[in-house]
Amino acid sequence: MDWETLLKENYFKILENIQRACEKSRRKLEEIKILGASKKQTSEKIKIAFKLGIKLFGENYVQEAEKKIFELKDFPIEWHFIGRLQTNKVKKALNLFSMIQTLDRINLAQEIQKQAEKRDLIVPVLVEVNIGKEPTKGGVYPEKLEEFIGEVKNFNRIKIKGLMCLPPYEENPEKVRPYFIKMQKIFEKIKTYMNSEFKELSMGTSNDYTIAIEEGATIIRIGEALFGKRS
Ligand SMILES: *Cc1c(COP(=O)(O)O)cnc(C)c1O
């Protein structure tokens, strides 16, 4: 089967699943944005996904993204960074991405502030939460989150648009639901004292996006269920 047929089938399956999850949780379809998690997928496939209707893509590696974003420069794609960001890559990342979804350290915030000042930019970010408290993963631990957000508020070049998480992988996606519920609770609490721009909750991947939607996700990040296996 060619990529166009495959991606089309995948995309329509995803749309159906999203619709069902929205009905089940009485949410509106327009509240959910699909982000194509395109790491290790070709520009060709990203182009096909874009033409099918996905306008937002996320990349994990600055170098890989740079190449693909250049190849796709004629398409009005919105690119978010969703990987672990090293401070020495911030400068380049700010040229490539309209949002950093993985802010999780003060030294990273400092570097973003510094580079943004130089170029007179305001940088939209999500704060990544390590909701499963996994030592090998990035993200702020839940109990440190409010303090962290309080500190980031002092950086006038950084705009916090919401929260992001990547919970522990579970074969049975129902086992991920408690993490999503926790995220939603934290999100709602913090929302009470942030301005109206704090509104995005980025959670859910190929395996569990319908559950993430049921528990309040506004951005779902889908890789292999859309593009097929990563090469
Ligand atoms: C790879 C990746 C995804 C997508 O994962 P799939 O299982 O392929 O859907 C989502 N979020 C992040 C942060 C990722 O690195």
Structure characterization notes:
- The protein is of the alpha/beta class.
- 41% of the residues lie in helices and 17% in strands.
- The protein has a single domain (3-227), classed as TIM Barrel (Alpha-Beta Barrel), CATH 3.20.20.10.
- The chain has 9 helices and 8 strands.
- It has an 8-stranded parallel β-sheet with strand order 7-6-5-4-3-2-1-8.
- Helix 3 links the parallel strand 2 and strand 3.
- The longest helix is centred in the first third of the chain and has 22 residues, at 3-24.
- The two termini are 17 Å apart.
- Pyridoxal-5'-phosphate is lined by residues 37, 39, 60, 82, 166, 205-207, 221-225.
How many helices? The count is 9
- General form: globular
The strand line-up of the biggest sheet is 7-6-5-4-3-2-1-8
Q: Could you say what the CATH architecture is?
A: Alpha-Beta Barrel
- Our count of domains comes out at 1
As a percent range, the share of helical residues equals 40-55%
Fraction of residues in β-strands:
15-25%
Alpha-beta content class: alpha/beta
Residue windows where pLDDT falls under 50 for at least 5 positions: none
Question: Average pLDDT, to the nearest integer?
Answer: 98
The topology string of helices and strands comes to HEHEHEHEHEHEHEHEH
- The name CATH uses for the topology is TIM Barrel
Rg computed from alpha carbons, rounded to a whole number of angstroms: 17 Å
How many beta-strand elements?
8
Distance between the termini: 17 Å
Q: Tell me the major beta sheet.
A: 8 strands, parallel
Bound molecules: pyridoxal-5'-phosphate
Query: Could you give me the name of the CATH homologous superfamily?
Result: Alanine racemase
Pfam families: Ala_racemase_N
Domain Alanine racemase N-terminal: 45-229
Protein name: Pyridoxal phosphate homeostasis protein
Modified residues (N6-(pyridoxal phosphate)lysine): 39
